[in-house]
């Protein structure tokens, strides 16, 4: 029987460190890292100016990403998806990627306080001024309205981190 790779994905509020953790886990596991931000920036470099634009283009790439990730997992290679799993619907899509081909998954839940996330957003914005339009307290508050902490009753294999 062929052993497929493991799918890793993340939940955590904006600024929790999902992208940083994704890079670290990909390196530690010699896994393929797939970043939603990189795909969107490459495919739609001038079209995303609001949260609504982000949602539109993010949904457009999902069918291609799903089949691409499944193809990689079927080779036995682990995949780390730097895509948000911050709502039940987002996590359902991520779990479906692995469950459709009957492979394992790991959800890393970065359970940081609002204050910790806001401090990291400020630091990120200072280090990369090009992020100043999206890395704001207002955007944090807006997207945090949609955040729902993951629950094992969603059929998730959760690893919770508080730092």
UniProtKB/TrEMBL annotation:
**InterPro entries assigned to the protein according to its UniProt record, in alphabetical order:** P-loop_NTPase (IPR027417)
Tell me the SUPFAM superfamilies matching this sequence.
Answer: P-loop containing nucleoside triphosphate hydrolases
- Which Pfam families does the record match to this protein? AAA_33
Q: What GO molecular function terms would the record report?
A: ATP binding
**Organism per entry:** Mammaliicoccus vitulinus
Q: Which domain of life is it from?
A: Bacteria
- The identity of this protein, by name, is ATP-binding protein
- Keyword terms of this UniProt record: ATP-binding, Nucleotide-binding
């Amino acid at each position: 029987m062929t052993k497929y790779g493991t799918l890793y994905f993340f939940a955590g509020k904006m600024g929790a460190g999902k992208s940083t953790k994704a890079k670290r886990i990909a390196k530690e596991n010699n896994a393929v890292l797939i970043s939603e931000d990189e795909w969107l920036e490459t495919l739609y470099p001038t079209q995303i100016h609001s949260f609504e634009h982000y949602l539109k283009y993010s949904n457009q790439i999902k069918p291609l990403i799903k089949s691409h990730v499944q193809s990689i997992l079927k080779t036995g290679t682990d995949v780390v998806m730097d895509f948000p799993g911050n709502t039940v619907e987002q996590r359902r899509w991520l779990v479906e990627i692995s469950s459709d081909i009957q492979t394992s998954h790991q959800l890393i839940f970065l359970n940081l306080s609002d204050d910790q996330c806001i401090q990291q957003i400020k630091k990120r914005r200072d280090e990369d001024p090009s992020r100043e339009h999206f890395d704001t307290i207002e955007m944090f508050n807006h997207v945090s309205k949609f955040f729902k902490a993951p629950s094992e009753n969603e059929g998730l294999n959760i690893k919770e981190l508080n730092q």
